[in-house]
Protein 1
Amino acid sequence: MRHFSNSHLTLAGFIGISLSLHGVLLLNTSSETHEISIPSHSGSLSVALVQRPNQPTPTSGKPDASPIEKSAEVVPSAASVAKGEISDKVEKFAQTEKPAKSEIDQREQPAKTDAKQATQAAQAATSTRASNEIKRELTTRLQTHFEYPILAVRRGWQGDVQLSFRVLSNGNLINIRVARSSGYALLDHSALEALRRVNHVRETIHWMHQDHLDLTLPVRYQLKEG
Amino acid sequence: MKPIHSLVLSAPLAMLALPVWADDDTIIVTATRTAQSIDEALASVTVITSEQIEQRQAQSLEQLLRNEAGLHFVVNGGLGKQSSLLMRGTSENHTLLLVDGVRMGSATAGSLPIAHIPLHEIERIEIARGPRTSLYGSDAIGGVVHIFTKASADEGRSEAQIRYGSYNTSEYNAGMHWGTRDFNYSLQASALATDGFDSIDGNNTDADGYTRNTVNLGLNYRLNNKGKISVSSMQASGMNEYDNVYAASNTDLYTNTYKLAANSVKFDLQFSETWQSRLNLSNSIDGYIDYINGTDNGRFNTERNQLTWQNDLSLSARTLTTVGLDYLNETVSSNTTTYTDTQRNNTALFAQNQWKWKQSDLLIALRSDLSDSYGTNTTGNLSYGLEHHGLRSFFALGTAFHAPTFNDLYWPSVGNPDLKPEQSQNIEIGTGAKGAITSWSLNIYQNNVTNLIAWAPVDPLDPAGPWQPSNINSASIQGIEWLLDATFGNWTAGFGIDLLEARDASTKTLLPRRPQQMVKFSLDGRLFGTDVGAHIKHVGEHFDDVFNTTTISAYTLVDLTLNKAIGKRWLVNARIDNALDVDYETSAGYNNPRRSYSIGVKYELDR
């Protein structure tokens, strides 16, 4: 029963994310096209985006498995790289989701730069709105991995733990930390361990349009009267 | 109970409809609150909250708990009089009574201070039926009644109440609670006085009064999530007038004064994220001074000092490993009785492990007690709980023991220092289901108690000569508890049946004062903004003596309660005890309260 509804949820959730991401893409394409079409702007935007992987990268992750690291390697310095090359990288990296690409191709066939810019805009949006959606999807996906420790139930311990972590586009969860304690070390530990055990959410490969996402995830341990 | 993950079911739909989210994607991990003593998935447990205590307005543990499954009280006449709790057909000293983890009772007589436990100070009571010696040590044969006072609670409120009722019974209590979650302290005090009524007809015809004055202090200090220090102290003292069946003269006045104390300091330490350690240093006092016509007729005092070091290891969310060490020193004193030994020590090691799987639970517990007065005793529990199609069942095996009292072992010239502890083997099956409207449970148990200590004439042909105790009796107890609860809106109805067959294993006679049938019914709800309640208990006819010749008639008690809040801070409540005005006995010859009324007014801060 539970299995059924879970897979149903997953599908619905995936469609939901997919649709809303496309919505975001389309919205941004139409509203920001003229602004981004200024060449100098376009260049600096691309550079800014590609530079992201150069930000402090996780220490506890697996650098070899991460595509971000690969893209970072091909971008030695923002200034020395040709504009088009960077754009291509960005496009290649971002447009992993086929429907998104074909849709944009259909609408904006001649203006390839527009498509690139749209993707960039989408990436910017990903870190704001889409991150929430990914987070929501993660929430439902991770839910079943959390358990209430017997000892905490026995002692009547309740509380909110806030976990912070980074989702890589390959689906790996790294840098898992307790951002805010519940007041009970056992609950904090249990939440942390649960997320560490998950370690990898394969589906994120389809959702992520950028290098990584830093998220905080609140976990509430709550006893009900029964 | 396994954690139930409350999925946000509407999430995918909401996603399609609305692309902007509030940042509330919280993972909610829930579990059913359980008793601290034992998981409800593995035993028959009842938890009574301070709200329920407030609703029922009882003035003694007997009034409060007499409708609970498996419990039968014997009271020798009204408030404060000698009261015994016979849990699941076992003897009066086969229940372990704990106050904030502190062992209560007299080590000389083996009796529990059921009559003197104050109720306003109580935050929660856990009744765990069945043997629990493998966790707590001696006495937990029929079960454990664990009282948690408000001193141990992190939260509380300030309140004051006055109450007046039949038999010129007045009661005053006030409580205060200050501080934060990290540092708080509380103080409760109460005073009760009643004129009472004549306990035994024709045996000194005056009313037998009672007083009870109590103080409960608590202090909780949290150390940076690394631990907690809790200090709690419950004290009760007062005077009790009673009638003595063996009185030499009908004009003699029998009274006693009593003093109870349960003091403890607990250190909860977090050695690591998964290792929780609790060191409990406790002291308890149970003291009586008996008077005839105002003259000291004997003092009996029990003092216990106990050190318990319990370690809970949470090696995974699905296991709980407990290992601990328990040291108990019992010292008795008397000014009239020169016990051949006045002190004993018991050292115990205990370990238990609980496993939780998706639909089942397993608990294995072992404890070894080494006493310098009655040797080594090893007891254990094995419980398996299963959840299947909404049906929650458990199967439990347990052994337990009750230590001989100082009276049994060391009474001058007749005490028997070779006595062994009374022992029991209990087997139990429980099943039940919890629904939105109705819930029910059915428990069936068989408890064999051997080595029961009984006093008999040293020379069987000379009953007037000296008597001596020995481990001669054994009992066979079978019982069924069936409970059914239903909730309709603001109303809750409860129905319960207790069937019991407690017999002497050799003579096959029924054990005295163990009713074979008890039926209860309760109805609680709201009417015109007032909380009303009716609690009915029927006790079948049973015997008062071991020979099964003196009967105690069947009786039905109806208690009615009413609670009305006036504004945010005032509460008016009333109780009618024994509304049918039944003249009943729980112990042959002793009167019990007839229909009695009481009314109270309460003022609360921050209700």
Note: The interface with chain A takes residues 1, 3, 5, 7-9, 11-13, 15-16, 19-21, 23, 25-34, 36, 39, 181, 225-226, 270, 272-274, 276, 312, 314, 316-320, 354, 356, 434 of chain B (CB under 8 Å).
Protein 2
Amino acid sequence: MMINTSRIKQFKENLETKRWLLPALLVFVFALSLVIQQFELLDPYVQLIIMYVGINIILTLSLNLINGYMGEFSVGHAGFMAIGAYVASFLTVKVFPTDMAAWLFPLAVIAGGMVAGVVGLVVAFPSFKTRGDYLAIVTLAFGMIVKSVIENIDALGGPRGFLGMEKLSTLPWVFFWVLISVWVIRNLIYSNFGRGVLSIREDEIASDLMSVNTNHVKVLAFTVSSFFAGIAGGLFAHLLQFINPRAFDIIKSTDILIMVYLGGIGSIAGSVIGATVYTVLLEVLRPMGIWRMVFMPLVLVLLMIFRPRGIMGLREFRWFVPVRDMLASRLWREKKAGT
Amino acid sequence: MTYVLQQLLNALQVGSIYALIALGYTMVYGILTMINFAHGDLFMVGAFLCFVAAVTFNLPFVPVLLLSMIGVAFLGVVIERFAYKPLRQAPRVSAIITALGVGLFLENFTLALNPYPKQIPQLLENTTWTFSGLSVSSLQVFVIILSLVLMWILDLIVRRTMVGMAMRAISWDKTVAPLLGVPVNMIISVTFAIGTSLGGAAGVMYALAYPVIDPYMGIMVGWKAFIAAVVGGIGNIRGAMIGGYILGAVEIMVVAFMPSTYRDFIAFVLLLVLLIFRPYGILGKPHPQKV
Amino acid sequence: MSVLKAENVTHYFDGLAAVSGFNLNLEPYELVGIIGPNGAGKTTIFNLITGVYKATHGSISFAGTEIVGRTPSAITALGIARTFQNIRLFKELSVLDNVRIAHYARVRYSPVEALLHMGRFQKEEEEIIGHSMDLLAFLKLDAYADEVSKNLPYGLQRRLEIARALATRPQLLLLDEPAAGMNPNEVSQLMEFIKWIRKEFDLTILLIEHQMHLVMNICERLLVLDFGETIAEGLPRDIQKNPRVLEVYLGEVKC
């Protein structure tokens, strides 16, 4: 028992010390991204791809919260993205003074996220009573409604689209927002509310009967999820510098769904991997022309047949798990042995 | 008044097509509780087969229709066997994602073969009759009648034949049906064949009515037909027919009296309102969860 | 004061009375059993008490508070916990997480604190883990804390379900066929176990059971249900002789 305890201590210490590496690494990468942006060390095309990867990570992870962790099936995620994109763009182009736009850009992105979050909160209400296929339809209808509302607002350019945004999404900004979204969603998952989210996936009735206020949990999950979808939309709009309603239609939502299920449900690591693999693969296969779009769905179908839970399904990369949760039982035993 | 009648006629035409596609969704759902999201794209394949048969092989209408229906049915059965069957025990969502993947594959594969939208030749003589201001085209009447005939045949199959009885048995209880000697795999294949062939027929009729076709045409029409199936109560065959006509009517009426850009908006808001008041559709029944 | 008081509770499914005119008064620390043939409405009564269904008529009060119309989570938070006829654990989650989830109503930290892992979050989370592990250890499940719950053997899954229910800190525990699928040896262990947790956690227990042996031995009082109606109520030995009960159970009672 004594040897065992000391080995556990050793293990824990190892992990603790290794964990310092993570923030250090992130700070380093962030600094690197600043340098790259400042001195244009990377080919702009490569930078663009990296930023797409980042935006897709945010989208994938935020949808994974609903579809993977909570086990619902939302198919309107692009709708939230559209709200964020249009709100942020409208602010930087029409509201904020032009010379200040670059400084106020983070505010615009956050505002876009918040409006999307509030709308997400409203969409959570049907989920109190409806589940499964019917909730899928509600989200589908929501996505379509967002698109047609935008098409009917002249101030947003209607079906023609909206332009005039400066290219304000830069490598450091995208990296920053990826970090924030991963951190916040991880925090949510490894909390009381996050366990509520998981228990809804496992068995909603049992969850309710174990005192989980499922309505609160759903509202929180939908709000956080759509907030980050809105953030991704704002970044996307200021990267592309042109948005139109068609960019956020059902095909876009499908794209995000594919990244979620490719990477694996209920996994942060899976979301990162899914978004990265899908985005990069599509770029690498660009020489194939249209045939890459034939090839990719085939890969998805094969993956679903042979690995129905995706690459990482329900598994997690250790560094994403708080020590408290990962070693919960060991730490408890250690404490018992100590006293 | 004539205007309203005119629009109602248009609604019947559009609704017929939605209803035919919605039937495919609902039949597959009824038997597998799975949403076959590739169904809208099978409808598109139907339209393209119509093009190939009419232009490349120069066939007249009846063989074109049969060829499209059989071709799409075959494709549907193949898809079920190779993409969906391995996933029957997997989480339901895997099957849905697979269906989305199959749909994307069909779209992009068709696009790779046909980079430009195609024009369908006039296969049927189209005469227009006018009754005191109301103009009725023979094509319109034909589409409506053919759809109704197909739906009537389907209703007969489901209600009066052994195959139909087996389908209902499986949708009633998947575990017990095989114990009673129902050949489940065979019946599922037959269901896919019938459901998708109706989608193929809808594709042909759509191509006749709106002769320019492109590989992405199935997405929007497919989703709307799916909504029609839900409005009627998914899994319920008569519900799908009713839902199709309701959706057709709503769309046409919105376009008739409001700017056409509101069409989708109103249609989807109506869907949401309906789902709030009748969460299981018009003819659907709730499935109480057992505790 | 009585722990649970059900008065004239009636519930209809599509116009069919699943439970009619049900009355029940549970005093603190009582152990009462509900028996009756399949479809008699026993589980429906549990569902009515825990708020899964809302009673069509009648009133149910828990420690003096009316609970008809409240949500299941609110009722559980008040102090009623239950297990299920067919085990309903959170299958893909660890044993520890199953128990942690049941602490939901005790958490005081806000969603914002949760999203940032700041403020009251750290301390409360550690307390929850501590309580959960203590509880698991108490029920001799701590060795399995990190196992995925679906991988536990059947008997341990049943025990984990009880542990999870206890984690909500109930005053009243509802056990829905706790002995289902157990052999006679396991049933006698279970009887001891039920008596033991009642003592340790100072519980009032209401249970549904088919195993007459268990019911007759540990219940202080029995209710017999048939077609949604209470046909007999009283001490186990009186119930055994009650002619109406014998009629309902003819050929079913195995004493």
Note: The beta strands of chain B are 118-119, 128-131, 134-137, 212-213.
Protein 3
Amino acid sequence: MKRFKHQKIILSLIIKKPLSLISLLIVLAFIVLGVTAPFIVPYPEDAWGLTYNVEKRFLPPSVEHPLGTDALGRDLFSRVLLGSSFSLIIAVGVIGLALLIGIPVGVVAGYYGGRVGTLLMRITDMFLAFPPLLLAIVLAATLGRGLLNLIIALAISWWPWYARLVYVQTNTVKNMPYIDAAKIAGLSNIKIMGKHVIPNALTPTMVQAALDMGSAILEAAGLSFIGVGVKPPTPEWGLLVSEGWQSINYAWWIAFFPGLAILTTVVGFNLLADALRESADPRLRRTILMRLGVKQ
Amino acid sequence: MSTPLLRIKDLKKYFPIKVGLLGKVVGYVKAVDGVSFDIDLGEVVSIVGESGSGKTTIAKCILLLERLTYGKILYNGEDVTLLRAEKLREYRRSIQAVFQNPFLSLDPRMNVFDILAEPVKINMKLSREELYEYISSLLNMVGLDRSFLDKYPHELSGGQAQRVAIARAISLKPRLIILDEPTSALDVSVQAQILNLLADLKNELNLSYLLITHDLSIVKYISDRIIVVYLGRIMEEGLSEEILDKPLHPYTQTLFSAIPDPYTRSSRERIILRGEPPSPINPPPGCRFHTRCPYVMEVCKRQEPDEIRFSSTHKVYCWLYVEK
Amino acid sequence: MTRQKILQVENLSIDYVVLDGIIKAVRNVSFTIDEGEVVCLVGESGSGKTTVGLAIAGALPENAVIREGKIIFRGRDFLSNRLKDKSTSEDRIMIIFQDPVATLNPLFRVGEIISDVIKHHLKITNPGEIREKALEFLKAVELPDPERVFNSYPHELSGGMLQRVVIAIALSINPRLLIADEPTTMLDVTLQAQILDLLINLKKKLGVSILFITHNLGVAAEIGDRIIVMYGGEIFEEARSEELLYNPLHPYTRGLLECIPKTHIKYSKLKSIPGMIFDLMNPPKGCTFVDRCTEAMEICRNVKPQLVEFLKDHRVACHLYRLEER
């Protein structure tokens, strides 16, 4: 009942603004394509990079190959389309893994506080001290190329942000009277965390996580572009851009279309994020000072 | 003389004030600073005081939500901080609580059935049908029916939500319920419904209550004894009639005169206190109330008054009455 | 008694548009406030009292819609004015809220906040003069050490002092009407008494009119010259304070008065009004109090009672009191 209401609010706010609606459509399209791409690509072997065809190199966009072909004569449309699956896997994998580490750290640190809490949060702060992208590059280079390593590298640079967020939320929730009520009822700490703290502390984090998917895709593409991401011939968008980069002068489409795919998806996610953030705080701040136009 | 249900002996609770990375302790907030009282079986005791008086901290200590800094809490003569295993569980079951704002004390993500089932499942062994029957009977006792079982807190009115919180408090058949401002978040017309319900339940289930409130106007409808606290210390204590008919301590008198009662607007002599309550970090020396007291004398600033007994039950801590 | 009317509210109706539908928060509310008068709007949650206050202050939230009505302040209907020019019409109306902490920006010292308001509204530019004015207002609200308060951040002050600061800021624009929305609800009783005392003094000294919004009839009786009782978005009864207390007509008002714990009478049981407020999205056709009323009649269910002046200066909306039977 409550969850249903929540969705209604989000939906209505999105639909009110056309830009938000477009962003929602982009994100939905991305998810649908990501799931179905392996089954619908016109040239599966080209898509997976299993073959090459020298005669068909550098063909410009045509009816047969809507986005043209690449340096090895493979259908670019198939490769970009399948790329959406990889981007989806990376986004879900990175965020999922980061949450898997971040949530327990944040909840335990926030709920118990004291020495345990301080220790856990200092460790978190150590990770936060590095610029995340730099940390991811170093990790990815150390672990070596590959899809799994890329996901691990990004997740490690990512989880501290969630740990912080969950920590702050847990701190708020643990002081709520219903937590005292649960203690009086005789629940153990583990049960209180599982039944009361986590469900109530997680909503903002989950929203944030869903919105971070765009950034995860962008960073993964960046790592692949500079050569520490996935291995060729995986049709990952960043890698596709990097492959097309060398021939940008005479075959612009090879770098352009994967780049456009990254741009569209990331902008879609970010616009959606903005719309959700706006909807999260629609209350008019009731301050006399605001009404007076005084600095706030 | 029989042992009281609960005896609080010289209870102190200091919260350390920590600064810096290493958490160096630079001082203490003396929230409760030496409070003693008894609660008998079937008795309703009210602790009255303003914010910062330490009344809520006393409740949290009794509920074992806070550790005591000093003093003892005796339950049927046994020190509760020494209770272990089954005895500790029995104590926890026997002392329940109802908080001020029902929308904060009920988990917003649980429906009424789950909220009420939670303590029952842990503490009693019941089959599914028995559990359902038991929870329905709890709802009946607080004046709600089965249709509320699958509602969530946000679908309830303030009065209904507080009834659910009361149902949860009585679910484990406790001996004592701590009522922490149980009506101050509710509308006036509903306030009385809840107070009356609490009074009925007390008689039906032979409960004791410890009512914690800042509102002297409601305590007389329910309490047998009143304890007035200020900055962590007891100022006056006595049977309800004694305190209501003849408030002795200047602070108690002030609290009474501050109650906005429409029908005594002109006849009543109002004492309006100047200034704010001092900080409990460095409570004033001598009598803690002397900085705001309209009758302050030299001795009040230097020395804390001893207990003055006006009857076997009525005690006051004030220099005004020392010579008598 | 021919005092100037400072505010006239006529047939004001306000809706809130929410996802599930439309909440009819205020319906057909009319009342007036005289120069230098304290009028109390009393009601429980859902009565619409705060919405009326916000509408007069021009501080309604975004999803509120003023369906119809007039708010005439010092002879000008500023609802129609506001559409043309947002900034000018409300200058001499000020509002203070329940929670002073939420009103003051924690990043600025009290002195900076109040100086800013003075600079803005009194068009004073000389810093020394601004400071003097600010201290004068802080002194006017009986703060013990205005200099120290001037240099403090909001978190360094207690709730009672903050509420005084907010009142000082409100006064600094020299308002003719002060709307106080439950300003003492979050304070302890001894501090509540102080603030009420302060407001009464300010009214006497500055002649400012006050619209005091509260759920507590006891507080209303302390401060109000006149009391308006609201229920479910409508006015049920209106009279001078003593008249309302000693001769309440509407069953709801009588019920409310019986609910208040009395200090001077001994009761074994406190009275209450059975039931709860109706669904504001679907108000009943007749009297909205009918389901909780002990004196409900057949007509109450079908016909909405009009607010009539049953006794002199005593208006009531109830079928028990019909003019022709007087």
Note: Chain C touches chain A at residues 19, 57-59, 61-62, 90, 94-97, 102-105, 108, 113, 116-117, 120-121, 166, 169-170, 173 (CB under 8 Å).
